[in-house]
């Protein structure tokens, strides 16, 4: 990921604009950003986060990029690790997951947490059985797609009906 310094320098190179011209670009859409500040960012980088969040919006206008990318580029200059990627599961989640009901989100999270915990080799025997029960509950509380996961439990050697009954008694 490029730093904010690199982005400003690249924009100046590709557009042929001066720092004053870039600052005018921000002013044309209602943001105030001094050309001296742009010069400082390009040559020495930021020293801290800007006090005004409009600075990010102004830079986004100047660089024709989303605000999120500007914030990340700023963070790179400040020495923060923004390259760490999320797990493959997180990056593959569809955008529409934010439309899931709270119950569905909790069921999915329970399923994931249980699956992750089950991978631990240092769990006592009883914990593995409890994890299977949690998987059954997660599958029961979700829609038909989640209920298909109950079949996977049978492959693990747990009787889904027994696990459901034990879970409901708790």
User: Which percent range fits the helix content?
Assistant: 55-70%
Q: What does the average pLDDT come to?
A: 78
From the alpha carbons, calculate the radius of gyration and give it in angstroms. 25 Å
Percentage of β-strand residues: under 5%
Q: Can you tell me the overall shape? A: elongated
Q: Which structural class do you get from the secondary structure elements?
A: mainly alpha
DSSP strand tally: 0
Distance between the termini: 49 Å
Report on the biggest sheet: none
Helix and strand succession?
HHHHHHHHHHH
Question: What do these coordinates show?
Answer:
With about 170 residues, the protein is mostly helical. Helices cover about 65% and strands about 0% of the residues. It is elongated and about 65 Å long. About 20% of the residues are buried. Mean pLDDT is about 80; it is low at about 145-150.
Summarize the SSE layout with pairings.
Elements: H1 4-15, H2 19-27, H3 35-44, H4 54-63, H5 67-77, H6 88-92, H7 102-118, H8 125-141, H9 144-147, H10 149-155, H11 160-169
Helix pairs in contact: 1-3, 2-3, 2-4, 4-5, 7-8, 8-11
């Amino acid at each position: 990921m490029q730093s904010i310094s690199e982005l400003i320098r690249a924009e100046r190179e590709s557009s042929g604009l001066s720092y004053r011209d870039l600052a005018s670009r921000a002013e044309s859409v209602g943001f105030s950003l001094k050309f001296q500040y742009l010069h400082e960012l390009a040559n020495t980088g930021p020293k801290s986060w800007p006090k005004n969040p409009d600075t990010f919006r102004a830079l986004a206008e100047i660089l024709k990029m989303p605000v999120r990318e500007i914030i990340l580029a700023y963070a790179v200059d400040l020495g923060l690790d923004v390259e760490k990627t999320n797990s493959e599961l997180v990056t593959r989640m569809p955008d529409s997951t934010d439309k899931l009901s709270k119950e569905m989100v909790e069921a999915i999270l329970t399923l994931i947490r249980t699956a992750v915990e089950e991978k631990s080799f240092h769990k006592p025997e009883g914990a593995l059985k409890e994890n299977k029960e949690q998987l059954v509950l997660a599958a029961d509380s979700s829609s038909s797609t989640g209920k298909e996961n109950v079949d996977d439990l049978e492959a693990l050697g747990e009787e889904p009906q027994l696990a459901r009954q034990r879970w409901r008694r708790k």
